[in-house]
Amino acid sequence: MNPLDLEAAACGGATHFNRRTILKAGLAGLGWLTPVAHCLARQAEQDRSGKPAQSVILLWLQGGPSQLETFDPHPGKNIAGDTKAINTALKGVQFAEGMEQTAEQLSSFTLVRNMVSREGDHERATYNMKTGFRPDPTLVYPSIGAVLCHNLSKEGVEIPRHISISPGQWPGRGGYLGDQYDAFKTNDPSSPIPDVTARVPEERFQRRLKDVDFVERAFAKGRLKDLEKRKTLQSTTIGRAVKMMSSDQLKAFDVSQESESVREAFGDSPFGRGCLAAARLVEVGVRCVEVNLNGWDSHINNHATQGARVATLDPAFAALIRILKERELFERTIVVCAGEFGRTPSINPGAGRDHWPHGFSIALAGGRFRQGYVHGGTSPEGEKIEHPEENQIEPGKGIAVANIHATILHALGIDFEQELITPVGRPMSISKGHVVHELLA
Amino acid sequence: MWAKRALFFGVSILGLSFMVATLLSGSPAPREEAPREATPLSPGEAGIHEIASMVDQQFAAKWAKLEMQAAAPADDLTIMRRLSLGLTGSVPSLEEIRAFEAANAHDPTQWRLSRLFEDRRFSDYLAERLARAYVGTEDGPFILFRRHRFVTWLSDRLQENQPYDVIVRSLIADAGLWTDTPAVNFLSVTIDQDAEQDEDKRPDEIRLAGRTTRAFLGMRLDCVQCHDDQFGDHWKQTHFHELAAFYGHAQSSLMGISDTLEQDYKYQYLRAETEEVVAPNVPFEAELLPEETEGVTQRQRLAAWVTHKENKPFARAMVNRMWAIMFGQPLVQPIDDLPLEGPFPPGLETLAADFAEHDFNLQRLIRTIAATRVYQLDSRADFEATIQHEDQWAVFPLTRLRPEQVAGAMMQSSTLRTANARSHVVFRIITFFQQNNFVQRYGDTGEDEFEDRGGTIPQRLLMLNGNLIKERTKNTFMANAASRISALAPDDPTAIEMVYLTVLTRRPVEEESAYFAKKLAGLRKNRRAQAMEDIAWTLLNSTEFSWNH
Question: Does residue A392 have a pLDDT over 80?
Answer without folding.
Answer: yes
